[in-house]
Amino acid sequence: MILLFYGYLKGLDRHLSWNLLGNLKLEWNMPWFWIGDFNVVLSQEQKVGRDIVDLNQTRQFNSALVDCKLSDIGSVGYKMTWLIVCLHNFLQCHETS
Questions:
Q1: pLDDT for 42-59, tens place per residue?
Q2: How many C-beta neighbours within 10 Å does residue 8 have?
Q3: Burial of 51 by CB count in 10 Å (0-12 exposed, 13-18 middle, 19+ buried)?
Q4: Which residues, other chains included, contact 33 with Cβ-Cβ below 8 Å and sequence gap of 6+?
Q5: Tag placement on the chain: N or C end, fewer CB within 10 Å?
Q6: What pTM does this model have?
Q7: Cα–Cα distance between 29 and 93 in angstroms, integer?
């Protein structure tokens, strides 16, 4: 099964994402593959930008992945889709006629 996932944006709500993962794991006994944005990083090294990594959020995310027997297989291409949108919007606003 392939599941698409978008995690809660607010840090205080992310435990709901991890609860959902755990509940689905209990109900689903077949192999699964998750694609999505969990809105949290696995480690400090993955963080780009000025915001500080919440180590508690990172720990909870890693724990949820272990509990659900999930692992990060990585990705190819732009790591931050919001960067592409920002660049595209900037270029559109500064086009010369």
A1: 887 777 777 788 889 999
A2: 16
A3: exposed
A4: 1, 2, 3
A5: C
A6: 0.69
A7: 50
